[in-house]
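#struct-pred

JT: dropping the chains for the assembly here, can someone run the whole complex?
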Amino acid sequence: MLELIIATLFFLLTFLIVFGALNKLKIFQNTVNAIVAVVTAFYSLLTFFLFGEDVQKVMAWSGIVLLSVFGIALLSIAAKKKE
Amino acid sequence: MDVFGIPVQELIFSVFLPFLLFYILFYALLRKSKVLGDVKSLNASTALVLAGIVISSAYAIGIIQYITSIGVMLAIVAFVAVFWYGTAATAARKLESYRTGEAFKTEDEKKFDKAKDNANTLWERVKKQFPKVDPHDFTQLQEQVKILESLATKLGKDLAVELPWYPEYKEIVKQVVKGG
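RK: done, full complex below.
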């Protein structure tokens, strides 16, 4: 069940990022952007089914790294302001 | 009580709150960097999905407790940083004002000092422009000097002593009045 949720989210994430990037670049029309994003998202879904466990590990650990970086940034900003 | 086989307490503290934290972090990062443009809905949905992936992946591989611990540490660090900075900065400001004597000054004295600084800056500017003085700068200087004159009478101060350029300024004003 959890695998299915993560796969769906992964599909959505790829779709949103590709769609957003294509929209920003304005190379194609809006509908073409959507089609390209859907196709890319299906490809990434295929990759997820092949390397699902590794992708999960990378995503989970990158979250921890992000939180740690945020904490360090918070401390350094507070220290700088104090100076 | 269990929801989807997960105890409610664990669901709130290990899933929902970290999810919220990640969602806000990702949303802020996306909005600040403008990687996907300035579309709010796109940024919000991307942040939602990213937070969902991170939390469900962490839950699936069993490292969600690390995220919870880091989240708690982060909250404590943020509180301490803000509290420490606020207290230290206020204390330093107060001490500095006592050291310089600023804390013992009356409101009028503070106003006088501020107007004096402004007038000195304006005078430097006007002097550089002389004899072709910008009328706007000169009007501002006149306003500041007027404030200083009224405050000097109140505080019993001599403007010629406080502002070494005051007699020269008076001469210029006389010339301007004579010249129309």
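JT: nice. Chain B touches chain A through 37 residues (CB under 8 Å). Residues 105-179 of chain B form one domain.
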